[in-house]
Structure formats: structure tokens, C-alpha cells
Amino acid sequence: MENNITTISREELEELREAFGKIDIDNSGYVSDYELQDLFKEASLPLPGYKVREIVEKIIAVTDSNKDGRINFEEFVSIIQELKSKDVSKSFRKSINKKQGITAIGGTSAISSEGTQHSYSEEEKVAFVNWINKALQDDPDCKHLLPMNPSDASLFKSLADGILLCKMINFSQPDTIDERAINKKKLTPFTVSENLNLALNSASAIGCTVVNIGSQDLQEGKPHLVLGLLWQIIKVGLFADIEISRNEALIALLNEGEELDQLMKLSPEELLLQWVNYHLVNAGWQKISNFSQDIKDSRAYYHLLNQIAPKGDDPDELPIKIDFSGFHDKNDLRRAEYMLQQADKLGCRQFVTPADVVAGNPKLNLAFVANLFNTYPALHKPDNSSYDLNLLEGESKEERTFRNWMNSLGVNPYVNHLYSDLSDALIIFQLYDMTRVPVNWNHVNKPPYPLLGGNMKKIENCNYAVELGKAKAKFSLVGIAGHDLNEGNPTLTLALVWQLMRRYTLNVLSDLGEGEKVNDEIIIKWVNQTLAKANKKTSITSFKDRSISTSLPVLDLIDAIAPKAVRPEMVKREDLSDQDKLNNAKYAISVARKIGARIYALPDDLVEVKPKMVMTVFACLMGRGLNKIK
To answer: With contact defined as beta carbons under 8 Å apart, do 441 and 67 qualify?
Structure first.
């Protein structure tokens, strides 16, 4: 690999990293083999499908050492090396090198010193600064940091104490962090580090991939890592309501002959595209198929704004008139500016500048459209209620916890819907890999699946997933067959997913204990010994122990592991009402994350004493305790 890097210039490496980053939008550091075609297009190397397939086969044979069908940046560079010719070099340079606003910074990692640089997008920085300034402008705890200047590096300095990050997580997913756990005054390097741990572990709990980021990176304000994390946090908030169970008016987007369950399987990005096209059709304008090439002339945006702007039909709202006078301007940049002036009338001039629209920046245009949707969806739920309302129930808290856990580990593609997104078992195979269950990737069918017999390929994958679970992972999968996973049987799918999460959690503990096998009894024994050693009065008999509903055993354990982390005045110990129990649980989970425990469970899991999730809380705290000893 090093030899390849030495023959590729720094400039070209930047170009490649920019292309790679556009496809790897969740910042996991990988793209899937089936995303390669998009990657080559982005790098201005449009290749026919058969050529991409040949390359993929070659990668898997030569470079993809763990045969997981995922390509990291180094593997991508080595492919380009092979394809490289004078023409290819030229087309790369023309297409990406001229991009405005890419700031390159010399890296400090071992890889960077071999000639890699990290780049970050100036446009993204500006967009995120403006969004944060607006989102938190009235928060008294942020007065010392806001407003930030979008044109300098103040974003990276302002995030360094962890307060803004914690606040943005709560802005995107309210109530994720108990504000009482944030260190706000007289900050020291230690309390800053606690805030950053709290932010990272909470980001992980809402489904952000934070595998390669540490609190030190954020403290140092490493731009590419900061922007990658911020984008994920902002996206969680933007996409929260673009989901049919949370917004039934989205049913209006059903196309002729389309079933509701098909609409339910769409990702937020796909729903947004369908939403834009719904309004464009009503406007008599042509549909778009992406948020890059197709919106560059701003004309689709003009029609979208005109469709969603309030017409004054509701007595509570004033009409907002969209002025089309800039629509025919010959200059793309001027036309985009006029369009954004109209968006400003709706209070939605966010995320994009005229240059971002004209350049077709897919990430920022997606954010612009999501914000438009959240502010003025302009949809009405159809009157006829001939739909299966059971489909609209939405995910349970348990399902969401599992989904967030998977996404935080960087599975690809991102899991939006637990059951339909697991129907081809590709995510399950990745989780097997991460939990050290050996997967033979040659046995795995990968997308794109053929139109005819495609589902059969998925069922074959699911059969293999069940077989691996039984034979290699030694899971209890009685009565579970491949078609249960493929059809998204909730009970049976959850049974497998829970065992994967449990195995993952216990692996972490086993590693800390130098390979010693860990089970429930060992965890309970450790918890009670640790509590007794610290002279605590609490103890637990099992993960079903009713005393856990007060969260006092958890809080006492945290105090035993990290004295002074728990502020006694924040904890209610006697005559607890239901609200007191919930407050204790919220505080316990936030403080646990703050001392470095990566906990996915929710406060309700403690209050309701859900044994599975309770086990993960104590296991994570045991991991933190053992780590401290080491």
C-alpha cells in the first residue's frame, strides 16, 4: 500500500479523498462494493457496470483482506493506481481539483505522515456554523461561545469544551442528555474531557458513528472529524420527522399503484425526493432524481417554494408570495441568490449559499430541502383511511435502541428501518464480523439483486445468517428460519439482534479481562463487590431486581468507579415518585456516559427494569471499572 501512495501526488490524494468523502456520507471510513459505481462517477471516472463488477471482484481477491465487501480509502486509492492513465489523471484534476472551498490540512496521524492530508469543506463549516448559531441563539449556557464567525476557525475552538456538542445533540434528539450532567462552570481539562465523553457516547446512542473519534480529537478541533460528527448529529435532527409513523401526512406521497408498506421502507432521503417531486408534479414541472445535478439551476427550487409557501387559506397564517422575477435570469449564481431570497421569506435560508446550489453540493442541498420539509411540508393526510393503521405504529424504544447501536458501529448502508433494512442479512453479516463470528463473504449475495429471483438471493443470505448464528455463534435460535428474517418477523429478528448486541457487549468485557469468558453471574458478582468495597448500601440480586427502578444501584456503582462524578444533590433517595425515578434514571445514564461508558439503554429501561438493557448498563459500567484498574 505504501508503494502505491508514494506514486500518487498529494494533490491527487486530496481529489480522491474528496470523491470518497462524498459517497461515504456517514463518515464510517468505508464504502460498499455496490457504491463503487457512484464513487467512480463522483471522481469523474464514469465506468460501465461490468467494469465496476470486474474491479470489485479484483479488490475482493487482492486488496479486501477481510472479504467484507467494504472498501476503505486506501483500497480505493490502490484501485485508482491500477486504472491510472494520463487521461484518467487529467479528468480527475479537471473535475475535482478546481472545486472551490476545499481546505487541506496536514494530518498528524501515522498515515498522514506518509503523505495523506485530511481535507474539509469550507462550505460545510459555514453551513454548520450558521445552523448552530440559529439553533442555540437563546441558550444562556452558550452565550460565551455564540455567535461564531462562519469565516474563521472559531467553530473548532467553540466545540472544544463539549458544551455546544451536548446542546446540539439535545437539539437534534431532545432529552438525550440530562443537562444536569453537563459541566458548565469553572471548566478544567478533566471536566472538559468529561463533557466530550458525554457528547461522544450520547452521539453514539442516537446512532452516530463515532468509532474513530476520541475526546482528544475534539479538544484539538480536528476539522474533518468535527465536521463529520456534526453532520451526523445535525442529520439525526433534520430527519427525525421524515418518517411516516411520526408524520402520517406523508401518506399523500403514495404514487399510483404503490402500497403503503413500500413507502414505509423508504429512507428519509428517498422520502424527501418523493416529497419534492410530489410538489413539482403539482406545479407542472419536471421531476428531479437527485439533490445535486438536477437542482443546480434553482428552477426546481423556485417551483417547490411556490408550492409550499402558505397561501393564507388558514386564518392563522398570512400568505407568503414567492417572487418569480429572478427565475429567468441568465446567470446561475444570480438566479440561485434570488431563489434563496424567496426561501428567506419562509425562514428557510439555511445550509446553502448560491455557490452551493450551483455546484450541486449533495450534502448541503439535502439539508436545505430537509429543513424546508420540516418547516412547510404542505401535505394533507388523505381522507380515505383504507390503510393498515398497524403499519403506522412506528418503532418501539427497544427497536430504536438496537438500530442506533448498529448505526453507531458504522454498518453500511445506514439502518433506517430495523426489519426491512435487515431483510437481505448484509447488516447481520457485518455485525457478525464485528462480534468475531467468522463470515465467509464468498457465500454472501450482494446487491444489486436481479429483478427476477432477487428475493431468493436475499433469503439465501438470511438462511446463511441463521446457520452462522446457530453453528458458529452458538446463539439460541430455536424456530428461526431465514424467511423469518427476510419477512421481518419482529419477535424472531429481535431475538437474533439482541444476542448479537449481548455478544458484542460481553466481548468488550472479555477483552478487558484478558479473554476470560463473562456471563450474567460474573457481572452481578462484580457489581455487588464493587458496591460493597465502596461502602454502598445498595446491591442487586439479578437484572430483574426491582430496586433497579430507582437507579440508585447504578448511581452508587458510578460513584464507586468514579468518585465525585455523581452530585449527591441531584439524586432523590427516599419516597420516590414515578417522576423522581425517571429523573434519577436520566441522570444515571448521562453520568455513566460522561465517565466513559458507552451506554445505549434509555432511562425507561431502568425505570421499567428491562433485564436485557439493564444487563448492558451494568456490563458497560463494569467495562469502565476494569479499564480504570488497567
So the answer is: yes
Query: Using CA atoms in the order 94, 99, 105, 107, what is the torsion angle rounded to 10 degrees?
Result: -60
Residues in Cβ contact with 394 at an 8 Å cutoff, skipping those fewer than 6 apart: 243, 245, 246
Question: C-alpha cell of 278?
Answer: 410530489
List, as one string, the DSSP characters of 508-550.
Answer: HHHHHTTT----HHHHHHHHHHHHHHTT-S---SSTT-GGGGG
Closest CA to 374 of 135, 128, 133: 135
Helix (H) or strand (E) holding 119: strand 117-121
Task: State pLDDT tens for residues 509-542.
Answer: 888 776 678 899 999 999 999 999 999 999 999 9
pLDDT tier at 61 (50, 70, 90 boundaries)? Answer: low
Q: Look up the pTM and report it.
A: 0.82
65's grid cell = 483482506
The C-alpha cell at 354 is 448560491
Q: Are 588 and 558 in contact (CB under 8 A)?
A: yes
In the numeric block, which cell numbers belong to residue 457?
438471493
Torsion sign over Cα 43, 46, 51, 53: positive
Residue pointed to by grid coordinates 456534526: 230
Do 12 and 92 touch, CB atoms closer than 8 A?
Answer: yes
Residue 71 β-bridge partners:
31
Instruction: Return the half-sphere exposure (C-beta side, CA atoms, 13 A cut-off) of residue 470.
Output: 11
Task: Count Cα neighbours of 222 within 13 Å in the Cβ-side half-sphere.
Answer: 17
